[in-house]
Design a protein that fits this description.
Elements (H helix, E strand, L loop, with lengths): L2 H8 L1 H19 L3 H23 L1 H8 L7 H31 L9 H29 L14 H9 L1 H12 L6
């Protein structure tokens, strides 16, 4: 497994984790269920922990892909910049969630509403930034995501080629070599 592989495997977990943490935390906050809200806090912490290898494997991924055709520093640099901001925000979210466990662990009144809504807001902003970072990362190796990308138009030859499969490839080779014109 190389740096690019590790990065691709690990970078989905923080985004999906934060999404589910928001859903669970919001449910707990609006239903006034402290236990459910704390499950959401735990999911935010887990998302942060998964964000660490996603962030630190980025440099290894760059080493693997930076010399491939179609890959440029113009595509990599914005992703790196966004990732730096995203990991800081994710760390603040994760550490705040841990603090929520310990500060209000034994207090009878539970986690106050202001803290719950602050965590939800921070989670939502984190999700947006993680999504933006992922979008920029996708553009590095997926030209179809880049602005200005044009889909190639199908013509009749393409359709005939798709319908005829292998025979179409042979006929196309003969046509290109001029064998059909010799008859």
């Amino acid at each position: 497994m190389n740096g690019a592989h590790i990065h691709l495997v690990s970078n989905h977990f923080p985004i999906v984790g934060v999404f589910f943490a928001i859903v669970v935390s919001a449910y707990g906050a609006f239903k006034k269920d402290q236990k459910v809200f704390k499950v959401g806090l735990a999911l935010f912490v887990i998302s942060f922990l998964f964000g660490i290898p996603a962030y630190f494997s980025g440099e290894g991924a760059e080493e693997v892909v930076e010399h491939m055709s179609g890959i440029s520093e113009k595509l990599i640099h914005p992703h790196e910049e966004a990732a730096e901001k995203a990991i800081v925000l994710l760390a603040i979210l994760g550490i705040s969630s841990i603090a929520g466990f310990f500060v209000w662990k034994k207090k009878e009144e539970g986690i106050p509403n202001w803290f719950q809504y602050s965590i939800l807001g921070l989670g939502f902003v984190s999700l947006l930034l993680l999504g933006w970072t992922a979008n920029l990362g996708g553009k590095i190796h997926h030209p179809e995501l880049r602005s200005g990308f044009k889909v190639k138009e199908h013509d009749e030859k393409d359709e005939e080629h798709e319908k005829s499969g292998h025979e179409g490839k042979e006929a196309e080779k003969k046509e290109l070599s001029g064998e059909n014109n010799k008859k």
